[in-house]
C-alpha cells in the first residue's frame, strides 16, 4: 500500500510563519492558485481512497477536483491539526496540556489513522490531505521513533510511504508544484 500524504495549500497564517492549529482559516489567494496546480498534479494517480481533514484549508486544497465531480473523498475529523499552547516559554509537554488538544488526544487521533491505513488490504494507493504537524507525528509514530524528528513539511509538499510488513519512506516533503 502506498500512502501519499499532502499538506494543504497556503493560508495567510502560513505565509506569515504563524501556527494556526485547528482554526477555520481558508486558503489565501496564492493557496487557491496552488490548489489548481496541485489538482492537475494529482490527476495522474488513481487513488483507491482519498481522506481529507475537515478544516476548510484542506478541503479547499482539493476543491477544483471536488467541483468538477472527479473526486470521491472521505472527510475525517481525526486528520485535523493538533493544537497546543503557543507559549514557547512553557516546557514542551506543558504546551500541549495547556492547549486545546491534549497531547494524548492528538496522538490517539494519529494512531487511529495509522490503524485505518494498516487495515487496508492490497497494493493500492491512499491520498491523505492534512496538516504539517499531523504529518510529522504520523511519520514518527508509524516508524515507532524513539527520537522525535521534526520533519520539514511545506505547503503542497508530498510525503510518500510504502506500508506493508515493513514501512518504507519513499520521500518526505517533496514539492510537487
Automatic annotation (TrEMBL):
InterPro entries xref list: His_Pase_superF_clade-1, His_PPase_superfam, Phosphoglycerate_Mutase
Highest taxon in the source lineage: Bacteria
GO biological processes: negative regulation of glycolytic process; regulation of pentose-phosphate shunt
Gene3D superfamilies in alphabetical order: Phosphoglycerate mutase-like
Keywords: Hydrolase
Any single GO CC term annotated in Swiss-Prot or TrEMBL for this entry: cytosol
Position of the signal peptide: none
Listed GO MF terms: fructose-2,6-bisphosphate 2-phosphatase activity
PANTHER family in alphabetical order: FRUCTOSE-2,6-BISPHOSPHATASE TIGAR
Protein known as: Histidine phosphatase family protein
